[in-house]
Amino acid sequence: MSSHAPTPPSTRPAEPRVALFVTCLVDLFRPSVGFAAVKLMQDAGCRVEVPQAQVCCGQPAYNSGDRKDTTAIARQVIEAFEGYDFVVAPSGSCAGMLREHYPALFAAEPAMKARAEAFSARVWELTSFLVDVLRVESVSASLAAKATYHDSCSGLRELGIKAQPRQLLGSVAGLEMLPLEGAETCCGFGGTFCVKYGEVSADIAGRKTEKIAASGAELLLAGDMGCLMNMAGKLKREGSAIQVRHVAEVLAGMTDTPAIAEGER
């Protein structure tokens, strides 16, 4: 587990006011993940809101070395999410950006750095929030399937997310979780990496899909849309029948929509 794994608060409100950080990929490509996240948190007793002023977390600009635009984006995000008890994202990479990197952007601005630190301390990835903060031990969903789970790099290494999704998935009636060899190995997405180094990314993805196929699973799950879209695309190009979904959809019992990279039913 990452040494940066967040420490759960010692106390929390009886009905936490939670802001959902939707993420760009969920907003543009998979809105069902956002609805699933809202359902899971509401079922756990939270009052969930979606701030309309939110924008991208700034990760693409940050990873490309554009600190000026990243800092401008961070200011807008911090402003949009002030006043909430918690900020939750259905993405380890976005949550990692918000929590681990925002304060350093304002090293030369003490007042803004303090605001960034206060904001970052309230940021959680969805499954970690459910398990570590809300102490959710099980969900009421059911799904008859054999599934396996991929650990996304940022969530695993920056936020210590590994046991939490598996604990919740273990409570889904009818779901059989199979081990994935190299579950912690990168899928080759890496944000802008897959654009800059397409051939390398494709090779990494191919090695990943070999392990996924060898697992015997019919369903691949993960907590980051970037990874999921990358692996789903590779599996589809290989002619695989393995379906790909965000973990939130399964935990919320919202699997009626087509899997990622599938057409409308």
* Alpha-beta content class: alpha/beta
Average pLDDT taken over every residue: 93
- The fraction of residues assigned to DSSP E strands is 5-15%
**Tertiary shape:** globular
Q: Strand arrangement, largest sheet?
A: 2-1-3-4
Order of helices and strands: EHHEHHEHHEHEHHEHHEHEH
Major sheet description:
4 strands, parallel
How many extended strands? 8
Poorly predicted regions? none
Cα radius of gyration in angstroms: 18 Å
Secondary structure: helix percent: 40-55%
How many individual helices? 13
Q: What is the CA–CA distance across the termini?
A: 39 Å
Helix and strand arrangement:
Blueprint: E1 17-20, H1 24-29, H2 31-43, E2 47-49, H3 59-63, H4 67-80, E3 86-89, H5 92-105, H6 110-120, E4 123-125, H7 126-133, E5 142-149, H8 153-159, H9 163-169, E6 173-177, H10 193-196, H11 198-214, E7 219-222, H12 225-237, E8 243-246, H13 247-251
Helix pairs in contact: 5-6, 5-8, 7-9, 11-12
Brief sketch in words of this structure:
The protein is an alpha/beta fold. The chain is built from 13 helices and eight strands.
Textual characterization of the structure:
- With 265 residues, this protein is α/β, with parallel strands linked by helices.
- The chain has helices spanning 24-29, 31-43, 59-63, 67-80, 92-105, 110-120, 126-133, 153-159, 163-169, 193-196, 198-214, 225-237, 247-251; strands at residues 17-20, 47-49, 86-89, 123-125, 142-149, 173-177, 219-222, 243-246.
- The strands form 2 sheets. Strands 2-1-3-4 form a 4-stranded parallel beta sheet, sandwiched between helices. A 4-stranded parallel beta sheet has the order 6-5-7-8.
- α11 packs across α12 (225-237).
